[in-house]
Specification:
The complex is a heterodimer of chains A (279) and B (244). With 279 residues, chain A is mainly β. Chain B has two domains: 75 residues, Gyrase A, domain 2 (2-Layer Sandwich), CATH 3.30.1360; 151 residues, Cyclophilin-like (Cyclophilin). Classes of the chains: A mainly beta (279), B alpha+beta (244). Chains A and B meet through strand 13, strand 16 and strand 17 of A and strand 2, strand 3 and strand 4 of B.
Chain lengths: 279, 244
């Protein structure tokens, strides 16, 4: 069992997502930065879908009740185990009673904590990803406990890996969305000719873009949306749906992020710069 | 019946969007559901599909897809759709709604705007059958079509930060039920005590796209009773098979 002594800004259990329930309006949820989760799980020879903790900006303080092995990935947030500094992308042995705590955020926005065998919280609709109201709470709070299986005799095959930080670049690869053809030449110029920035309104549901572009008066019937769908509101606001984003929407879907770029965007915070690149 | 023309568009790396003529129509919805039945009969694993009015989003969960290949697969399936057509079981659900002012905080203002008495508004709202054209926005939220034009009212100028679970609302051509507490700008005229999304059930959402909904006005006492029955798991909403 792991105990959440302090949850930090936003701490949640995530796997790669909840699939097959879109038809009743259930979003995929799952880790925002899938690339980082896969790497952390790979280091522990876990299944890539094993549940991890997703840490947002301000890290938690966590206590482990039994022996295990962990690996950290994603954002660089200063982390210490019993006050000794530890690094991302290494396999770390954990003893009974050890305390993991986090300090300053140095790079990125979301960090991941993978554990040998994955966290064993209850699966709801085939996934452990926290999303309200599928799970009772959208995130972990102070005092919550998360089960895992004890491991004390594991020989890591890969003890450390050098990682390309996929989230260091600012360019997002986008495809044409279903309503791409609504964009005028001047709107296209605007979107692709200059940099944009992440607005204060950014969370697991959606990232809004600070700068407005020219708006539109197109009304359409509600239709399907996906993580990575960029909607354009009549006022000219670009809204990029993320993992907890709704399954349907009524704004024109002008662009669609590549999956790799969803992981890149997941590591951006308020004020960070973005450039859209059409493929 | 001849199928409608469709357009197929790429939608990211693992999805396509199929669009039927841009209208809210029961026969278009039937055509979409026929297509889905035909596609499901092919038993290709990994695809999930969601309908909204005149469109179908198809997502392949296992890998990225080749658009041209997927498009051809869809067109072939559509060709065979008429031949493989089966009867679908669809239901008419009667959902109880308490229109008391305690729940329907906007019902008086809405009736004034619509030029109806509160009784007349309730009578009209409960006398129509609404088609479920899609489920989305929130888990278990139904997009309902078929609202009489006499009940069309613009959304509220300022959305509420919290609309209570079960709230029944009106907004332009739509009526619907909030399946959970949520921010929202609809005019709230009542509350439905039935859980529309319950992840602890094997079938978390009993309504299916293509089903119909009719509302039934209930008293506060009946509301409380259904609420308790729902909590202990003995309440089943009333249904009849539509196409028996």
């Amino acid at each position: 069992m792991l105990k959440v002594l302090k949850a930090g800004l936003y701490l949640s259990i995530q796997d790669l997502g909840r699939f097959g329930h879109r038809d009743i309006g259930v979003p995929i949820a799952g880790a925002m930065d899938v690339e980082s989760v896969k790497k952390a799980n790979l280091l522990l020879e876990n299944d890539e879908n094993d549940a991890v903790l997703e840490i947002t900006m301000t890290g938690p303080t966590l206590q482990f009740y039994t022996d295990t092995y962990i690996s950290l990935s994603g954002a660089h947030i200063v982390a210490t185990l019993n006050n000794e500094p530890i690094d991302n992308y290494t396999v770390i042995k954990i003893g009974k009673g050890d305390i993991l705590s986090y300090g300053r955020l140095e790079k990125g926005f979301r960090g991941y904590l993978a554990i040998k065998g994955g966290f064993q919280s209850k699966k709801v609709l085939d996934s452990r990803s926290q999303f309200y109201p599928v799970t009772q709470s959208p995130r972990l709070k102070d005092g919550d406990e998360v089960p895992y299986e004890e491991t004390s005799d594991y020989e890591p095959k890969i003890s450390e890996v050098k990682i390309d930080e996929h989230f260091e670049n600012t360019s997002l690869k986008v495809y044409k969305g279903p309503e791409f053809s609504l964009l005028s030449d001047s709107q296209l110029m605007e979107i692709f000719a200059k940099p944009y920035s992440v607005s204060k309104e950014n969370n697991r549901m959606a990232y809004q873009i600070s700068e407005l572009i020219a708006g539109h008066s197109h009304s359409m019937l509600t239709s399907g949306t996906l993580p990575g769908t960029i909607q354009l509101t009549p006022a000219g606001r670009m809204i990029i749906l993320m993992k907890d984003g709704q399954t349907t929407g009524g704004y024109p879907r002008i662009l669609q992020l590549s999956e790799e770029s969803i992981a890149v965007l997941a590591q951006k915070k308020y004020g960070d710069e973005l450039v859209f690149k059409l493929v | 019946m001849k199928s409608y023309p469709i357009s197929i568009k790429p939608f990211g790396e693992r999805a396509v969007l199929i669009e039927w003529p841009e209208k809210v129509s029961e026969s278009i919805l039937a055509d979409i559901l026929d297509f889905m039945d035909a596609f499901k009969a092919l038993k290709i694993p990994g695809w999930e599909m969601s309908v909204a009015y005149n469109s179908l989003t198809m997502v392949y969960n296992q890998d990225h897809i080749d658009f041209e290949e997927t498009k051809n697969m869809i067109l072939e399936c559509q060709e065979k759709q008429a031949k493989s057509k089966k009867e679908r079981v669809q239901h008419l659900w009667t959902l109880p709604v308490c229109y008391d002012l305690e729940f329907g905080m906007d019902i008086e203002e809405a009736s004034k705007t619509l030029g109806l008495s509160v009784e007349e508004l309730i009578k009209q709202h409960t006398s129509h059958q609404y088609v479920v054209y899609g489920i989305g926005f929130l888990p278990g939220f139904m997009y309902l079509g078929g609202l009489p034009s006499s009940l069309e009212i613009p959304r509220r100028a300022e959305p509420r930060l919290k609309v209570q679970k079960g709230s029944v609302g009106l907004a332009s051509k739509q009526t619907g039920i909030y399946p959970q507490d949520s921010p929202g700008g609809w005019n709230i005229i009542g509350n439905c005590p039935v859980d529309l999304f319950n992840p602890s059930k094997e079938n978390p959402c009993f309504v299916k796209v293509g089903d119909k909904i009719q509302f039934e006005s209930i008293s506060k006492a009946e509301y409380k009773l259904h609420k308790i029955e729902g909590e202990v798991g003995i309440y089943e909403p009333e249904k009849v098979v539509l196409n028996a």
